[in-house]
Amino acid sequence: MAVYTSLSQSEVETFISKFNIGKLKSYAGISGGVTNSNFFINTDSCEVVLTIFEELNFEDLDYYFSFMQHLSTHGFSCPKPISDSNNNLIHDLKGKPAALISKLPGKVFEEINDHQLIELAKSFAEMHLISLKFNTQKKNERDLQWMKDTFSMFANKISSEQRELINEELSFLENLSENLPRGVIHADLFRDNVLFEENRLGGIIDFYYACNDFFIYDIAIVINDWCIDPNGKIIDRKKKLFIEAYDSIRQLNNNEHEALNSYLRLAAMRFLISRFRDQFNEKDAELNTIKDPLFFYEILKNRRQSLN
């Protein structure tokens, strides 16, 4: 989350007047993340989140909001898009798509304990199972071809060592197993996208990279963030704990177990490429935190060394 598009108090008041959520008491920009502008909105009757989408178009948002509503209908804890008095979810605000969504309980924990990891794994598996009943399809826009195309845009700006490693890895990733279960994946489930009330999971947020892809890829993304030490090396005990908890809800098959190591490398590459992209295309923002691509460069090197 971040703030690229500024809003005055009068602009916020005008926008929320379309909704039956009371009068504005306060609002504040939310820092963190790299894609959209986000604000906490506090009215005399509720707390909600206002998001202005800086890159997504109206058509993309139909898929994300439909999936979030699908999850909510099945009892899954995620933000619910809020309709205005005319039953519209998506609006134009300063020439960009914007929406109000419900604010979930809890907060982000940077340090994750075992109880939280288990809760996350079970909820994550439930999300994957619920997704099997969602019929709308959306391609993963940040697939391997996107990685290659994006890499070509900044390849001459990084070191020869980094360039060589990425080229080698992109070649390796062309031959991944694809005989794997699939459905809708979150595709960005880092620690800052999960809220906890102590050991209880409050909910999963930020579904704006969701798409149809392999479940094991989603699992690899989670392991690369939730089951690592400060240097990015996988903690085997945490990885085992996560997979066992996930398995208790949705059991991985043999193909998924065999493919996990390779998909850990794919997941590392995806975020290495996107973080380099963000670094070289930094946008002006009031509140923003550019994440270090070199952290995922070290993760990728580690996965190559230990998982070959």
Describe the structure.
About 2% of the residues have low confidence. Helix 3 crosses helix 7, helix 4 runs parallel beside helix 8 and helix 6 crosses helix 8. The protein has 2 domains: 94 residues, 2-Layer Sandwich (Phosphorylase Kinase, domain 1); 194 residues, Alpha-Beta Complex (Aminoglycoside 3'-phosphotransferase, Chain: A, domain 2). It is an alpha+beta fold. The strands form 3 sheets. A 5-stranded antiparallel beta sheet has the order 1-2-3-5-4, covered by helices on one side. A two-stranded antiparallel sheet has the order 6-9. The two termini are 35 Å apart.
Main attributes of the structure:
9 strands; alpha+beta; 308 residues; two-stranded antiparallel ribbon; 5-stranded antiparallel sheet; Phosphorylase Kinase, domain 1; 9 helices; 2 domains
Structure in a nutshell:
By secondary structure, the protein is an alpha+beta fold.
